[in-house]
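hey so i finaly got around to running the thing on GAF and ANTAR domain-containing protein from Nocardia veterana. pasting the sequence first so u can double check i didnt mess up the copy paste, my clipboard has been acting weird all day
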Amino acid sequence: MSKEYIVLEQLVRPLSQITADLVRDAAPVNTLPRINELCTRLLSGDAAAIVVRDPHGIERVLPMTDDRPDLIRLLETYAGNGPWTASTASLDVVEVDRIDDERWPELGRDLAATGCRWVCAAPMVLGTEAVGSLVLFSEQDLALDPAQRTVVQTLADLVTLSLCQESDRARAELLALRALSTFDDRVRYEHAVGMVAGRLGIDAGRAATLLRAHADARDLSVAAISREVTSGTFDWSELDRPA
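ok and heres what it spat out for the 3d tokens, dont ask me to read them lol
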């Protein structure tokens, strides 16, 4: 069996099913088991769950399957103090790869009682803030390599998207609004390029390059610079005339 076929079967096809669910407004109850299956296939995980912070700042546990109620009870016991809280605080993947980890000694003892020897938490991020963690358990001694850490974070992002799904109508309206905004930005950008070209006596290609370079130099988006140019608030002295 070729390596390409293995990648297709273990990663590409499951991911295509998950993304199709997200596009088609599938309920999380249908999508989360697919993500849990990927955790098992790719990372040798035995169980997965979600720890989510509610509007009052309290950690809530959502099981992704019903296979390991003992692990769900453990998560509920330590919801406010464990790798999952460290993950949300650091916005990074956190592993416990030995049961005597001194950061959470009581958790380690209770984890050993379940037969698990490894736990990993990846932050679920919305914008710049973590709203929870995807938590993976395994009865094996594991240690993630950089590629596997990336996979874990990708799965956490998919969980976040699954739980943030809006109705088809709401998403269609949002898509239309964003498409219109993107179109307006493009028209404004082309207008700004024309204004730069006309003022400096250069061709459109050179004007576009200058506009993008100036946006980068000011750490602004091209859309923001274009808005300044077309609204008349741009300081033309900042833009050196090309030789």
